[in-house]
């Protein structure tokens, strides 16, 4: 009897309250199958914490997608995967992965079911993207399109344009939003190494030219904020406004040390110090989708890309440029940011007329842990 109690508890947690009606329906036709589902499948197998619910649902979706002919069950478990903490993009990546081993028909079938389930649960599909040639390398740019004034989002060191995915939606209701992968990151990984912020800024200028965008609102976080500041000092005529988030204009010996640490100890050794700088303890303990993704980005980074980006900050020399920037500027800091705390961020107030805002409880990686609050702060700064 305990197996069935445990199984019913587990199936309700994974599949939802509708599971009771499903089991009852099966039981009317076959009590044996209903008891096997609750007692064995969920009571004995699914309930074991050796594999987490999220991992079990990913495995279940992969198996059902690969065997085919189990579309009703596949739809149930795609929804269960989302309920168990699987991220939309993890499911989409799983469908892509499936094509390698089970072929495109199975992968496309899974993709269709994911798309249908996302629509039923109100989860937005990914923003369209395009490949853009920037001379010595290619990058990928997310672009919502639209007629509103364009906002360009520049991401942090070690991540890519995906760090903005939960910020884009609220902003795209009013603006065209563009986010792209920096040289040495994302689609632009293994590009010729950056020589400093000036090269990053030149890449951005070329991106705007390639996209046919004359003037934008420029928003950058961390390394992206430093790049945005450098861009504003050189090409102010291309900007409506400048938003600097959790960034620095001041060099620090720690930046060179982080480059050397990766070169001597490898990327796996950078995971703990990096994630503890980026996120709050609560987010790390919850191991949410954003944390899982950031962990993998650090783990998989190419050492030379990582080191070159840190050295672009180690050689930073834009503090003296701040008073010369003639662009409306909004500075955003995270209350709990230990990397670029509000006390450091106030230094950007040297930009004439700059406004300053602190987001309560926010760590360094504000876009991943408090995206709604950051989107609201960006829009408020524009206003």
Topology of helices and strands:
Blueprint: H1 2-15, H2 18-29, H3 31-46, H4 53-67, H5 71-83, H6 88-102, H7 104-121, E1 129-133, E2 138-143, E3 150-154, H8 165-172, E4 176-180, H9 197-211, E5 216-221, H10 223-234, E6 239-245, H11 253-265, H12 271-278, H13 281-286, H14 289-300, H15 303-314, E7 329-334, H16 342-345, E8 355-359, H17 366-369, H18 371-382
Parallel strand pairs: 3-4, 3-5, 5-6, 6-7, 7-8
Antiparallel strand pairs: 1-2, 2-4
Helix pairs in contact: 1-3, 2-3, 4-5, 4-6, 4-7, 5-7, 6-7, 8-18, 9-10, 11-15
Q: How many extended strands? A: 8
Helix count, DSSP H or I runs of 4 or more residues:
18
Radius of gyration over C-alpha positions, nearest whole angstrom? 24 Å
In what order do the strands lie side by side in the largest sheet? Answer: 1-2-4-3-5-6-7-8
How would you portray this structure in words?
The structure is a single chain. α5 crosses α7 (104-121). 55% of the residues lie in helices and 12% in strands. The protein is of the alpha/beta class and 383 residues long. It is elongated and about 80 Å long. It is built from 18 helices and 8 strands. The chain has an 8-stranded mixed sheet with strand order 1-2-4-3-5-6-7-8, sandwiched between helices. β3, α8 and β4 form a beta-alpha-beta unit.
